Amino acid sequence: MRKFSALCLVVAGFFASLILSGCGGGSGVASAKDGILSVTANAVAGPTGGPAGFALSRRAAGEEGVPRTTAQYVGRLLINESAVAWTPTLTIDAAQNQVSFSAMAPVIPGPVEFALDIRPASSTATTGSLLKGCFRITVPDGGMGSATATLDASSTARAMAYDLWKKRTGAAQKTIDDFSGDVSVLAGLVQTQLNADLASTTPPTAAFAWGSAVTREASRVADLAPIPGQETSHGPDLATGNLELSFNWEWRLTTPPDNVPSSPGEVIGLAYFKLPTSGKPTLGNSFAHIHPTGTAADQTNIIAWIPEAASLDDVATAPGSFGTEALARFPLPTELEEGQVYGFLVGGRYGALQITSFYTTGITFRYKYNRRVGDPTLR
């Protein structure tokens, strides 16, 4: 069986000869066998002793000298997001915390970017990767380039954000070495879901998908990561998206929404709260109204209604002045409404939002903001 699996890997690599290379770019798969990419992946479910683990081995534990294996997962080598080699049988350690596989494929010599991932054995084209990593090595002319890689929550978070980052304007030709997004929060969210989805002896199915907390954070990281070479651009560097903000939570733009802290931090975030006098829900600086501290933070102006804007797309430049909360522009507006457009200034970054819905426990809105501190240009 092991010989057959190895043969599948080599044959798959050979028939991938017409596919262009790169986890998102780079050298191409060879039309002739000019170079060989040989990789080994060690996929780790989570910290030793933690809840995450791979399902029970299919091979009896008592076979002396024979590695334990599992057929409940598929290991793949991807170039340019296409699988050029795969194996349906992975070795698994005794603790069931790690699975491993090896693969190889012919490539054009030079820098080669590739990805490795682990998926459920029943996976389809729409199934998410349980664990993934993007890597880059140089393959010598007429020789073999070898690499051993670890796939874990951190590598998966980086690969997930990198794949989204590559879709941004100006990033298509960049490589994994150019990506510098902070995936520390995302890695924690990935591990949290793995702890739930890999906690039993029944492996995930083809229906596996990452939850909304993971996908939102991946999008945020991809949106904020700089693109080398764009630093001198004179146009706005816009971050855009949709956000749900819970009651008494605040958003500081560059970090996920969280509970309003007991004391203000360096950045005063945009919070959703109720005015103490009228009980009306509003957006703004909660320290100015329900969490006063007696410091300058209480007076930080961060939001302003833009009555002339019928859509977020209408806003080309942020307002010139702001108030502490959304209803502060006397005499209007008197309350939040769906469709309203507001400008904001958070942590030195200018932006605008349009309310899509709001309710007792939360509010949703579309947003855009300029990543460049101090630049009010929004279109």
Please tell me about this protein's structure.
The protein has helices at 2-15, 153-165, 184-197, 212-224, and strands at 35-44, 69-70, 73-79, 82-87, 90-92, 98-107, 110-120, 131-139, 144-151, 238-246, 249-251, 258-259, 270-274, 281-284, 303-305, 341-346, 349-359, 362-370. With 379 residues, it is an alpha+beta fold. It folds into two domains: 2-224, no CATH class; 238-370, no CATH class. A five-stranded mixed beta sheet has the order 2-5-6-1-9. It has a five-stranded antiparallel beta sheet with strand order 10-18-17-16-15. Strand 16 and strand 17 (349-359) form a beta hairpin. Helix 2 crosses helix 3 (184-197), helix 2 (153-165) crosses helix 4 and helix 3 (184-197) packs antiparallel against helix 4. The radius of gyration is 25 Å and the shape is elongated. The model is unreliable at 1-22 and 57-62 (pLDDT under 50).
Topology, number of strands: 18
Alpha-carbon Rg, integer: 25 Å
Largest sheet: 5 strands, mixed
What is the typical, i.e. mean, pLDDT? 87
